[in-house]
Amino acid sequence: MKFTFTGTGTSQGVPVIACGCKVCQSTDPRDKRLRTSGVLSSGDTTLVFDTGPDFRQQMLANRVQEVHAIVFTHKHKDHTAGLDDVRAFNYHLRRPMKIYANQDTITHLHKEYYYIFENQDYPGIPKLLLEEIFSDCSFQVGDINLLPIPVMHGGLEVLGFRVRDFAYVTDAKLIPPSSMKLLEGLDALVLNALRIKPHHSHLTLSEALEVIAQLSPKRAYLTHISHLLGKHEEIARQLPDNVFLAYDGLQLSWED
Questions:
Q1: Which residue has the higher pLDDT, 121 or 239?
Q2: pTM of the full structure
Q3: Is 112 helix (H, G, I), strand (E, B) or coil?
Q4: Spatial contact of 70 and 131, defined as CB atoms under 8 Å apart
């Protein structure tokens, strides 16, 4: 199994337009962050978590040739705005793209991409097969089994996902006790850590480290990072031995 961080930045990305801070002006490539997304591949099956505004760029940069499904964490623009670009995979693979999302996200997609659903016969629009998924109810994409795990992003429920001993959780501020239970015993946890100062709907660095300490995964990787967190090199030195600051293009691999 392989997981690639195709984007590790928050909704504005890093660098932020017109910002002169030290992070945005950094020459370290690890400080250049596209909007948060990831590709999970088993060898036989490849799926993408979220299609943000940088989806096309991410697929090209990571040379992704085949995608069997898109799995959405939630409806926000920085996670859905690139959906139209799945049509390239429609053309290349000659099949509709399977989309897995909760009902709230499906409703949003129907509204934002009304032209896809109003006339499926119109040439050039994406071809999609939407399937609703539910918290705590596992589903199958090819040979990959995913368990959706609900977390709270302010007042919005977001889905994290567990695949065997790997879990992907982004845009969380509160992880309910029942969801914490589902995240125990992990080899690798991906978790959001927006910045140092408090935020109303995202975990801060210290809050993310508290969650990691409670769950005790063998390894943890921080994502959904803003320029307000600090430079990659400086923050990475402050982290516990089993916690790493993710960056765009980082790949994790493990035996099933």
A1: 239
A2: 0.97
A3: helix
A4: no
